[in-house]
Amino acid sequence: MELLWWHWVALALALIGAELLLPAFYLIWFGLGALLTGLVVALLPLGLTGQLVLWCVASTLMVGAWMKFFRNPDRTHAGQAKEGALGVIGLVTRNVGELGQDVGPGEILFQRPVLGSDRWPVVADHSIPAGAKARVVDVLGQTLKVEKI
Asked: How many structural domains are present in the chain?
């Protein structure tokens, strides 16, 4: 079976169209690889094996370039970078004890979700009473470190 250039263009359009329905942002790169293969096949005679190899290599290179240069690797699982939380101000809803004390962590409430949640357990270097405003100065895993404003 021989694939003609327009077969590759049709596959490219189908994959790019499927990307609109499935927001995975991977199908577009395979569609662009198929489009590139269709253009090359229109200009140069390639056998089926050469066409498939060209499509695989082009698609892999495009996915790799997207992962390396365009995708933001500094994002957490919640979709925000750790640095995006630094400096955000919230309202302390449960007293915060000093670090090293035998008191549990306090709690802070934000107007908008920070790192995927609007409430976070917090610790601080100095005690902060409930009702005070505090600023995030560090992210310690699942706990935020804050300072009183």
From this structure: 2
Burial class (CB in 10 A: 0-12, 13-18, 19+), 95: middle
Region of 144 on the Ramachandran plot (φ > 0 left; ψ -120 to 50 alpha; else beta): beta
pLDDT digits (tens, 9 = 90+) for 12-54: 999 999 998 887 788 999 999 999 999 999 999 999 999 999 9
Instruction: Judge if 86 and 53 occupy the same domain.
Output: no
Kindly state whether residues 59 and 86 are assigned to the same domain: no
Does a structural domain hold residue 59? yes
Residue 46 carries which DSSP code? -
63, 13: one domain: yes
Backbone phi and psi for residue 136, each to the nearest 5 degrees, phi listed first? -75, 130
Number of residues that make up the chain: 149
pTM for the whole structure: 0.50
Task: Please state, in angstroms and rounded to a whole number, the distance separating the CA atoms of residues 53 and 59.
Answer: 10
Distance CA 61, CA 29 (A): 9
- Low-confidence residues of the chain: pLDDT under 70: 71-80, 98-104
Cβ contact 96:128 at 8 Å? yes
Domain that holds residue 110: 82-148
